Amino acid sequence: MRFLRQSWSVAAKDLRSEIRTKEALNASLSFSLVILLLFSFAFDPAAEQIRDFSGGLLWMVFAFAAALILNRSFARELENDCLDMLLASPVPPAALFLGKVSANFVLLMAVELIALPVFGIFYNVNWGMQAASLVLVTALGTWALAVIGTMFSALTVNLRLRELMLPVLVYPMMIPALMASIQLTTDLIAGQPLAGDSFLWLRVLVAFNVIFTALSVVFVDTVLLG
Amino acid sequence: MSASIAVEHVWKYFGDFPALKDVSLRIEPGSCVALLGRNGAGKTTLLRILAGLSRPSQGAVRVDGRDSREEATRRRVGVLGHAIGIYDELSAFENLRLFGELYGLDRPKDTALEWLERIGLSAVRDGLAREFSRGMRQRLALARAFLHQPSVVLFDEPFTSLDDRAIAVLQQLLSEARARGATIVMSTHQIREAMELSSDVALISRGKLAHAGPRTAEMLADPGWLYRQYGDGQ
């Protein structure tokens, strides 16, 4: 129980800070909307092929927009040496990590759930045929982004070029989860239910989340303290 | 008597550079140790290792008989570093409540309110820390460090750039901590204040422990005596 309370305290602190400053949230949301708008000029929104690359387009936007939120995750702890005070407190590093992942997950989901209807309008796509499944897949893909992104945010927090290094490290690691999310999103937007091959991709995504969440929880102590 | 803090043959390397060289030190419970040394001598490195913020490259550190990274140890240690360690985007109350929750206090809200009253910030409890004056932020940082009644207090340059009111709060908190038997280790360049407060003195020179022992009358009368004695004058 104490572990969960400490995780919640860290998550609530991060969310409260972000809601007050809106630094990462505004940047990420504007970036998503601008990219969706620009690509809508590049492609014909009336074309049937739009459904074939809808998943790829959406997840490309989500992944790039996520970097703006994830970069701030540990960087905000550098002001006033707050990270040292968190590490000096009796919070297990795993609770600290999961608190930060949860806050990032909420922020990323907020951006994505705003971007999704905008995507539907700009590209003339009815994404609501499998809405519940689409939200599930988005949540699983976003958890993967939050876990990997938060871990590398911790790893790069003391680097001068962390804004550059984070995407360089995160995207290659995310390839299996992104492939699964793209495939599943494309199928769901086309109206196909989660069955057959889609189910296999769903299992890949779940397995990715379980494995990388567990590995991150085990290694975060080493990452933070060296 | 078992030591409150035991540093055993600690080495710390940054790359190839040894910041600490085979440092061994025993600090008895209830003592107040002034950790002295020139800039770059290794004081902050040693304090960070004691606080569990850095691992020694070799050797071991035990606080109250436990590893410094154990949760039970960190629950008993209060740390104040060079920076204030409070969140600018949270209010004074939210900052103290957050650390109360992280330290597992039974009543974090009530404790936060009590401390705000004590440091004279209850009237601005909902003000964001970034809007506070330097002195107010310093008092908030002191409350954060003492919130959980630590039995081991680790301070890095505690008197540097504090205003008069914050110094008064700090001296009051340190004397209360000593009265309840807390062990205090503070690194400082303000030798005179340190000598007046401390029961013991440790001098680090170029990563090595040059001297460790009780503060003597000579040190109190002439704060520079120790540096001259070990050829490490500033």
Features:
heterodimer; A: 226 residues; mainly alpha; 80% helix; 0% strand; globular; B: 234 residues; alpha/beta; Rossmann fold; 6-stranded mixed sheet; 4-stranded antiparallel sheet; 10 strands
In short:
The complex is a heterodimer of chains A (226) and B (234). Chain A is mainly alpha-helical and 226 residues long.
Task: Give the arrangement of secondary structure elements.
The complex is a heterodimer of chains A (226) and B (234).
Chain A: H1 2-21, H2 23-42, H3 54-75, H4 82-88, H5 93-122, H6 131-155, H7 162-189, H8 197-225
Chain B: E1 5-14, E2 17-27, E3 32-36, H1 43-50, E4 58-63, E5 66-67, H2 71-75, E6 77-80, H3 92-102, H4 108-118, H5 134-146, E7 152-156, H6 164-179, E8 183-187, H7 191-197, E9 200-205, E10 208-214, H8 217-221, H9 225-229
Parallel strand pairs in B: 3-8, 3-9, 6-7, 7-8
Antiparallel strand pairs in B: 1-2, 1-4, 4-5, 9-10
Explain this structure to me?
The complex is a heterodimer of chains A (226) and B (234). With 226 residues, chain A is mainly alpha-helical. Chain A has one domain (2-225). Chain A is 80% helix and 0% strand. Chain A is globular. Chain B has 234 residues and is of the alpha/beta class. Chain B has a domain at 5-76 and 150-229: P-loop containing nucleotide triphosphate hydrolases (Rossmann fold), CATH 3.40.50.300. Helix content of chain B is 35%, strand content 26%. Chain B has 9 helices and 10 strands. Chain B has a 6-stranded mixed beta sheet, sandwiched between helices. The longest helix of chain B is centred in the last third of the chain and has 16 residues, at 164-179. The model of chain B has no long low-confidence stretch (mean pLDDT 89). Chain A binds chain B through residues 2, 5-6, 9-10, 13, 16-17, 20-21, 79-82, 84-92, 225-226, and chain B through 48, 51-55, 69, 71-72, 74-75, 77, 79, 81-90, 94, 98-99, 101-104, 128, 144.
